[in-house]
Amino acid sequence: MRSIVKLAAPAAAAALLLAACGTTGGDDTATGGESSGGSSSCPSDLSIGFFGALTGPDANLGVNIQNGVKLALKEHNAESGACQVKLTPFDSQGDQNQAQGLAQKAAGDKNLIGLVGPAFSGESKVADPIFADPDVNLVAITPSATNPALAENGWKTFFRVLGNDASQGPAAASYITGTLGKQKVYVVDDSSEYGKGLADLTRKGLGAADIKDNTIQKGQTDFSAVVADIRASGADAVFFGGYYAEAGLLLKQMRDAGLTSDQVAFVSDDGAKDQGLITAAGESAAEGAYLTCPCLPPDKAGGTFVADYTKENGSAPATYSAEGYDAATILLKGIAAGKVTRADLLSYVASYDEAGVTKQLKFDDKGEPSEISVWAYKVEGGQIVADQEIKAS
Is the CB of residue 58 less than 8 Å from the CB of residue 98? Predict the structure, then answer.
């Protein structure tokens, strides 16, 4: 982990603020109204941020989340007398090598009082220590970063609205061996903070059913050696820990090599639970693939969220759209309650206990949610559909 840059000095903070103005991709001003004008109860140019991939190979996941954030923001700003809030995006491309610089820019933005994100575990590992620095004190609620270790660092500004991989890994293992009845599982990870961490937890849950392990690299496109090894292993299932681009290509090459879904089931995770998996694999190869996620099926979200999201975006909510909406709503309810400084908003989030569209939203002293569920999904007819909730064994 890179060293944390202290932001206490006014000159450093000012420099970072100036840098932030030109390199985050610009403010998204979908505010639904005019600025409040800078009263003491509602500062002008108040903003919350989204930190995650908006471009790059994993952008679909970030766009899903930001669309949920935008809907929450539009609804907040449309309320009569609402303190108007802008959205500041920080496009990390899902690359933790960019996270430190972006986190420093977020930290130095005096108008920014809360974040939705970071979206991925690797970038969270780099960025969250900067937000937690006492001189920064920037609350960050992730809707999707699931590595369990993130909550073990004592970061008082860290919160997440979904279960971590300590629940998803064992659930995936239980689903593979119990529901699918597979007993010879070949486990592959993409060597990322997220993918390897989840795969290791799944391996542990599989026990003797984990017959062989392998690792690929982010951005890899040729999996012929891995596919040959899967065939030689006699595996009746493959679990892949990683994201949809590599998962889709691995799945395509497995099916092209004659490893049919009847012979070798393909199971992956929330990072692969995206239409991009089907695009990369092709609809025929993707048919029958399974995915796990500590996320609620979007059509089961409460209230009018699904209808409102679909009307706003022209498509149904996808992976983590609802969780992004919930995370943003927490921040915006704090602002509506007059918590318009970083310190006040942080205190508000830490004591939050209200129903969201995905679950009752309440955090323990590590920032973990009080309610956790893991669902299995499958690909049918070119779409990812819910299969069942995976109950703890």
Answer: no
- Closest by CA to 284, choosing from 238, 252, 237, 327, is 252
| Residues found in the chain | 393
Asked whether 190 and 242 are in contact (CB, 8 A), the reply is yes
Q: What's the alpha-carbon Rg for the chain, to the nearest Å?
A: 21
Kind plus residue range of the DSSP H or E element containing 159: strand 158-160
- What is the pTM for the complete model shown? 0.88
**Residue 182: CA atoms inside 13 Å, Cβ hemisphere, count?**
27
What span, in angstroms and rounded, lies between the C-alpha atoms of 350 and 148?
Answer: 19
Which of the 8 DSSP states describes residue 315? S
Can you tell me the mean pLDDT for 26-46? 53
Alpha carbon distances (Å) from 269 to 172, 280, 332? 8, 16, 30
Place of tokens 């108007």: 84
pLDDT digits (tens, 9 = 90+) for 330-364: 999 999 999 999 999 999 999 999 999 999 999 99
Give pLDDT, residue 302: 85
Token pair of 277, please?
Answer: 């998996």
DSSP string, 117-137: ---SHHHHHHHHHHHHSTTT-
Nearest to 98 by CA among 48, 157, 25: 25
Written as six digits, the tokens of 386 are: 């819910």
Please list the alpha-helical segments (H only) found in the chain: 10-23, 59-78, 96-107, 121-132, 165-174, 193-206, 224-233, 244-256, 275-281, 283-286, 305-313, 321-336, 342-350
| Residue 393 confidence (pLDDT) above 70 | no
Burial label, 284 (beta-carbon count in 10 A; 0-12, 13-18, 19+): exposed
The DSSP line for 221-279 is ---HHHHHHHHHHT-SEEEEES-HHHHHHHHHHHHHTT--TTTSEEEE-GGG-SHHHHH
Using alpha carbons, select from 182, 308, 307, 198 the residue that is nearest to residue 243.
Answer: 198
Residue 22 pLDDT more than 70?
Answer: no
Q: Evaluate whether 354 touches 360 at the Cβ level (below 8 Å).
A: yes
